[in-house]
Amino acid sequence: MSEVATARRSRITPEREAELYGAVLELLREVGYDAVTMDAVAARTRSSKATLYRQWGGKAELVVRAMRSQKPGSIAGIDTGSLRGDLHTVVNREDDCAMARNAALMRALAMAVHMNDDLRQAFKELLVEPEMEEFQRMIRRAVDRGEIRPDNPALDYIVHMLVGAFATRTLIDDLPPTQEFLTSYIDAVVLPALGVTTH
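Request: output the structure for the sequence above.
Response:
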């Protein structure tokens, strides 16, 4: 994020920012991305539209930052000494209820991401790329510890596997993603693909 963006955003208190993000996410669940407008956010949060644009530049950045605010913090600090421990810790940071809410939000955005270049760009820059970098650091540690061979072909697909399991759980099984489902998926699919024993 640029220094200008940091400076402009710092004028709003964390409490007010959290309130705004909560309202954006409510609207997103109610009407979907395309029908969320800066006017609607301004009305719901008793803000001026000018303030919203000054703080966030536009709808795409506001929506993605609101979604990012729901994430349970960075995974950068997770280091249990094993890849299995690290991945299980990532999954267990959110309870099943929060996971189901986040899955619903992702479904609300899925189509819009494909249709809106500005949303896709904000999504990649603010959510996907930072998460990928953190996962890659976690994987590098596992390679350095000797848990995974550095030439394992599955290394490039770990995030795809995890996101796929999360995103398709409802589509395939008509059930929300849960801690139990994701930890069993990690043990049955992700770790064996990487040559990591789970016993």
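The chain has a mean pLDDT of 88.
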